[in-house]
Each structure stands twice: as structure tokens, then as C-alpha cells.
Amino acid sequence: MRSNPLYLSLVVSLVLLASGCASYTPSSAPVPDASAIQLKQANRGVEAGADVYVEEERQKAIFDANLDEAGVIAIQVLAKNKTKRRMLVRPTDMVLTLPNGRAISTAGVNSVVNKVGEDGSVVGAALAFGIIGMLAASSAEEEARTARTEDYKHKAFKEVTLAPGQSGHGFVFFIPPPGTPDFNHATLRVRFVDSDTAKSRSVQLALRDLGFVKAEKKGAEKTEKYDN
Asked: So what's the pLDDT on residue 160?
């Protein structure tokens, strides 16, 4: 049976679409060494450090995305227990307080991945290749989203109980809600909870040079850039 050139061309196009419209390869860059973190504070035997990833190059190296453009703030957090007690540290207990006094809780990895999104266009695939193209693009996008989610979870700060002398580190994420005013500095609170007494103590870290800009302003700046 002779092959139909048009059919073969369509098959090749769909394969390329599925493999290229939405892809994510976990970054080969390991989670940075937390000992290099410069900003550190201590409080009654517990210590915390923070490194805010504001540079696009660093964001793309670790997360393969421009998090700033997506309205996501990524912070590498270091927690050390120098007491003689076991201390529980949870990312859900970490809070970012803005200059206007508003406190923001950490965002889950799934929320971050939803903000970052993927490069493929399911709608474009549907227009170009119909229902088959839409299904291929949707499948590729879902695979990319799953890979990104697992990679981000691996790099995220995980709930940990620190024995005396132990430390833990990883990334936490914050997504300021729509309408949040621009801000350049904020305060990160890292909370330590005594595993036996449930009493807690916190470390406050003053973060500078965040350069957060409202999403609507970013959109206007992006449009102006392309218009020019």
C-alpha cells in the first residue's frame, strides 16, 4: 500500500507538536548551597537565613521560568536549630509582611506552577490541527506541568523537625494578591516550634531590593515594549 504524503506530513506535524509545544526539563542546577546565604538572624538559639531570587537569570537556572513576570516571589530559606530542643519548622508557618502591614502566607507548589504555566497553546493547536492537535497539545502540556510540579516540590522547603545542631533549607514561594501595591522591601518571619512544649519563637528577616511590581503594570510595560 502506498503511503499518503499528506497523511505522513500530518503525523509528523502532530509528533512535533506534542513534543515541542509544551515541554519542561528539570533544571540540572542543584538547589544552591544554603551555607552561602548572607542574610541571617538568630533568636534564642534558633537561626534563619534568606536569599531572595529576584534576578531573572537565577530564576531560570533553578526554575526554568521568569517568576517575576508570573508574579511569584521565590525565597531560599535556611533554618538552623542551635538549641538543645527538637524544633519543628513548617513552610506554612512562614509569613511575608509587606510595607503596608499586609501579611501573606506561603503559596503551594501547585499554585506556583499554575501561575508560571507552560509555553504551549492548546487553542492554537486546535485551530491548526483540529481535535487531534488539541488532544496532542493537551497531553504534552499536562506532562510538562507534572514534570515542573515534581521538580518544584523537590526544591521546596519541606516541613522538618530539627534535632539539636541540625538545619534544613529549601525554597518557599509567595504570590501577592491582585492589587498589591509595588514594594521593594518586606519582612519574612520564620517560626520554630518546640516539639515537646509547643512553645514557639520566630526569626524576622528584613528583605531588600525585591522590586515587586503590580501585575497590571507589568502587562502595560510589556505591551509598550512590543509596540516600540
From this structure: 98
Q: How many CB atoms lie within 10 A of CB 142?
A: 12
Cite the beta strand spans of the chain per DSSP E: 39-43, 46-52, 73-81, 87-89, 95-97, 103-105, 160-162, 167-174, 186-194, 200-207
Which pLDDT score, from 0 to 100, does residue 24 have?
Answer: 64
What burial class does residue 65 get, using C-beta atoms within 10 Å of its C-beta: 0-12 exposed, 13-18 middle, 19+ buried? buried
Look at phi and psi of residue 171 and say left if phi exceeds 0, alpha if psi is from -120 to 50, else beta: beta
Provide the 8-state DSSP code for 107. Answer: B
Per-residue model confidence (pLDDT) at position 117: 74
Burial tier of 5 (Cβ tally within 10 Å: 0-12, 13-18, 19+): exposed
**Single-letter code of the amino acid located at 171:** F
Which grid coordinates belong to 148? Answer: 515542573
Rg of the chain over Cα atoms, rounded to whole angstroms, equals 22
Q: Is the pTM of this model over 0.70?
A: yes
Q: What are the distances in angstroms from CA 100 to CA 95, 180, 184?
A: 14, 9, 12
CATH number for the region 34-116+155-227 comes to 2.60.40.3880
Query: How many beta carbons lie within 10 A of that of residue 71, not counting itself?
Result: 19
Residues of the chain with pLDDT below 50 are 1, 6-21, 119-130, 132-137, 219-228
